[in-house]
Amino acid sequence: MKTLNKNDILKKFIRQNVNELNDRQSTTIEPLVTGTDIAKANRDILTKWCEVLGRDVQAVLDCNGELPVGGDVPTEDQPTPTPTPTPASQPKVSTDAKAQAVAQLLSQIGGSYDDSQINARLDAVEKALNSTVKNVTVKVADLPSVDCGKVHKRFKDLLAVASNRLHAILVGEAGSFKTSSAVKVADALQLEHSSISVCQQTTKTDFLGYNDANGNYVTTEFRKRYETGGVFILDEIDNGNANVLSVLNSALANGSCAFADGMVKRHKDFILIATANTFGNGANAQYVGRNQLDSATLDRFVTIEWGYDEALEMAIASNKEWCETVQSYRKAVAKLQLRMVVSPRATFQGEKLLASGIKLKDVVDMVILRGATADQIKKIVTELKGAK
Questions:
Q1: At residue 238, does pLDDT exceed 70?
Q2: Cα–Cα distance for residue pair 62/2, rounded to 1 Å
């Protein structure tokens, strides 16, 4: 019988556990490991895969690679390293099978239930299962893994855009985790980040800097990231003056930009992530102060629609019952098409006020119905009663 060398033993072990390996890497941007990848892998890559699987390389070698799939390393002296937590994949179950299971459980409780009642309960179960938000670990190329915690449902899309050194604009309602998600992307890529919130008073100097009375250049956060690399977060880009923002066109389109002290070459790791409440078409009924953005500016960005992630909101909230209340008001406001914003900020502000002893009705008035007219409140209350 042919004697296996150390790399062959490790490859044998990886082949036995390749499905588990791919499951554990499912929340990273690492591609699926194939048989060809295993055959070509060197010792460093094999060692990394063993670490992802939570296996000790020496123990694998001592066992000649004969370990059961998903089993623990049989060693007494050296404990198995704890694997990096990643969301576990769930087995797929057909809707019919789930419905039958629900029907069986209901029959045990007693009473008769028609298909619509069973489906309603099934939908509730599905919603509860899908609302589970798990911590995500990101592994980019040869960089160390980064625990990003709980992330927005479109975080992976933004990470893919930024990983390719493309610039993105996140368009969504106020309080939809746009800025915090941009920061998490910077952390995942292990890049520095800076930010600026744009308003009508923002000038070109805020981006390009200026020379003071003594002729010394005064830099900006935009200049730092542009020259040395990193993520620059441009908050509320649609709240700024389109003529001022036009300075970004050459900076993003070309490999250099003219600053107050001369031309500066763009760093290869410079990434700009902008946030907006509109798609750059100007003010709407909800966001009356927003400006129209130049098409040439918008053309520099990849646009990602960034809606509310209520599953993430619920996962983060400490007061789940209050979060459900906020989300029910949000649905009512949306259905009635009222000019009101009920963002996750109402959830996080409200739970603090409730914990401080303020009455529920007062908290609702303070963080949800603030500024609403008597007629709007009446419509919302009627809608909430009808939804029960």
A1: yes
A2: 17
